[in-house]
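Lab meeting minutes (informal)
Scribe: AK
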Amino acid sequence: MPELPEVETVRRGLQPFLDGQKLKTVVLRRSGLRIPFPKDLSERTRGKTVNYLTRRAKYLLMHIEGGDVVIIHLGMSGHMTILKKNIPKPGKHDHVDFCICTGVIVRFNDPRRFGLMTITTEKELDFHKFFRANGPDPLANNFNHSILMEALVGRKTSIKVALLDQRIIAGLGNIYVSESLFRSGISPLRLASSLKRVEVEKLAKCICEVLIEALEAGGSSLNDHVKPDGKLGYFQNNHRVYGQEDKICIVCLEVKIKKIKQSGRSTFYCPICQS
């Protein structure tokens, strides 16, 4: 599933083609994806200008003239592609076209159909069920170790499971939690509330560093992630533990990266570097 860097990469790729542009129409080729499309989605966006694109956690937000906001989640396999010339006919999994008055089409493709698209208003956005319980965005200016420390107080789950909880930090997933814990030298098995302030300070710093590096690389293209221009991200080439099970740790050079399950999710770590 695309995580914060992948979604932000998509936002940045779409921004030059959508910000300030008028939507001619939005073509829906099915009744919905993970959830039904709002029946008035096309009507509420037709002929309206896209003021700007933002991101919250793992969601893209398309802010529309008049105060509406289109909420988009890429799911497990969704991607959005910019089509400018020699536009091909829609394929089996091309479910939505955002047709811009410039002639550009932004096409939403989702083979597994775990993505979603809905619409709300600017006034209701903060209270929407997708966002009202969200924790801080780790790339926001106000994110720091004190905020993370406070969120971990009393948490009786492992630090790995805690960081995947969107109520603690919004936007992190399996890849970047695993990589951040490795860089900070913290075992994913540690009880979240047991971390000392100095450890949380280092963890918060590593989370930001990993995310920024991933953004610079265009995200991690493992299964389905591609940028809007069709190119792949390459941060997967820099993964130190995620997907590296049974390979010798590149830091200690003594043991192999271990893969375990925590709350049904795969965890990757070095038993020595993260002891």
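Next up, CB showed the second protein from the same session:
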Amino acid sequence: MKKLMASSFLGLGIGIFCVIYSIHYSGNLRSFMNLPSFLIIAGGTAGALILAFPFERLKTLGSVIARAFKKDHIDLQKDIETILELSEFAKKNGTLALENLAKQYDNDEFLQKGIYLLADGLAEDMLIASMQNDIYFAQKRHKQGHAMIDLIASSVTSLGLMGTYIGLIPMLEHLEDPTSLGPLMAIELVTSFYGAFLSYVIFMPLSRKLKNMSSEEALRKEIILEGLVDIQKGKNPRIIQEELVACLTKKQAKTMTKNGKKSKKPFEFKGKKVA
């Protein structure tokens, strides 16, 4: 089970707390509770989602949102060290022997698949095509989830503006009756508030978070693929390291360069010896 990402909860909590506290400090929390405004935002957004996406896609909305609060544990430095360890092992025992190591990576399907393909002696172009297919379709699935979040963010903003019209038009028709202006202005302003709050405090940051996570995952997979191809070509581990550290920060790259191609912990092979 993935650990929860504290930064996501912290950011969301700070945003919601500051807005609610500001409303409470003004002494009129109840003034921001308006049923017509809620129906405009909730009903309009639900209708837009149902119109835009099939039900099978909508069923995944909860898991898409939940993903932003789960930690992926992406550590590019550790991944490069793993590639270097595999490179050292392949250099000493041959790429065929890598098959015996694949089971050690059951928690990393992408790397495990790459090791199996490498051990099977797949041609370079076929290895690249197969692994890039995984990257492409994973990104495609992520974009489908992002599209739902983006639609919510844009819909609540537009519906907030629509609420302004819904309150403004009748208000202009009843300027002679001051008693009717208050409720109509409430619909106008509270709906705009709901839309702005949901869009700018929750769903737009949520969408950006998910897109950043998807980009980081794609980068990680590209690095692993590059490393596996280099192993297949029989490149020296030192050369592989120099090529892969380009994706790291200067501080991380400097640390790896100081350590050299040797990892901090010796690579242990827990399988049958290859004759």
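CB comment: The chain has ten helices and no strands.
No objections, moving on.
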